[in-house]
Amino acid sequence: MTTPKHFLTMLDYDKEMIQALLEDAKQLKKELKEGTPHPHLKGKTLAMIFEKSSTRTRVSFEVGMLQLGGHALFLSSNEIQLGRGEPISDTAKVLSGYVDGIMIRTFGHSRIEELADQATIPVINGLTNEHHPCQVMADLLTIQEQKGTLEGLTASYIGDGFNNVAHSLIQGLCLMGMHVKVASPEGYEPDPAIMHEAEVIAGEQGGSLAFSHSAQTAIQDSDVVITDVWASMGNEAEKEQRLNDFQGFQVNQELTEHAKDDYIFLHCLPAHRGEEVTSEIIDGSHSVVFEEAENRLHAQKAILKKLL
Ligand code: CP
Ligand code: NVA
């Protein structure tokens, strides 16, 4: 596979390319910790468009560009003409004349596809309603660091199956040859098209993909336990309904008794403590959520270095 121009979903890249990016992320992390400068993107500029809130994505991309010798522009959609109805296609063409890459956090995935189609520069997905691939690059890096490998490990995702993090995890973990088990309440299952495609990929890579409506079934003997909020950005109006529908899907002490003794716990953050996960788990000895958050920086620097 030649390197695609953009990074919109985990399946834009093949397993070897993901592994190479993870190796580069580890190298950049090592150099940063040693204090070795690595200005691979000297003079390059990244436009960062945010149509939704962010802490990690905004800060890690901005700091990452700075550490690579480049510059990042924070563009809140409320403050640029995009928020007043300028077409995304015109925005893509205009920005292509000024900057070297665009990172965008937006709503429907078709918006980023249109942006990528119309831009002459690389576009990176900083989260859409359907995908969050930069998060999953950090998750893969974290799992590999903690467990020494990805292939053959069992990971369970418990919670909202029809969201960005779940979809990118299903794609990314299956691509890397892991055994992936997903549990969601009825009505919150992952996109069937994403499940079917990932199941085939998992088979090719020596992994597997299974779905269940039981959190206990999914978490059984897992090396890695992952969850995400029950109501994502944009689902706020359904919050009360979802709190009710997700009963039995909280990652807590009782549920994690069924995972392996040395399981690790991941959450993309922000977390709603007491809803999808208890404070006992997120602050407990199995949790690697802050290592995971830090790894957003290192994983994204490898992506920026490759694409810009
Ligand atoms: N995990 C993540 O994307 O966090 P932010 O919403 O803070 O960017
Ligand atoms: N699924 C969450 C992820 C936040 C980083 C959301 O979309 O709000």
From TrEMBL:
Q: Name a single GO biological process.
A: L-arginine biosynthetic process via ornithine
Q: What is its EC number?
A: 2.1.3.3
- UniProt-annotated binding residues for carbamoyl phosphate: S54, T55, R56, T57, Q81, R105, H132, P133, C134, Q135, C268, L269, R296
| Localization of this protein | Cytoplasm
Q: Which amino acids does the record list as binding L-ornithine?
A: N164, D228, S232, M233
Q: What job does the chain carry out?
A: Reversibly catalyzes the transfer of the carbamoyl group from carbamoyl phosphate (CP) to the N(epsilon) atom of ornithine (ORN) to produce L-citrulline.
- Similarity comment: Belongs to the aspartate/ornithine carbamoyltransferase superfamily. OTCase family.
Protein name (Swiss-Prot/TrEMBL):
Ornithine carbamoyltransferase
The species this protein belongs to is Salisediminibacterium beveridgei
Question: Which gene is the coding source of this polypeptide chain?
Answer: argF
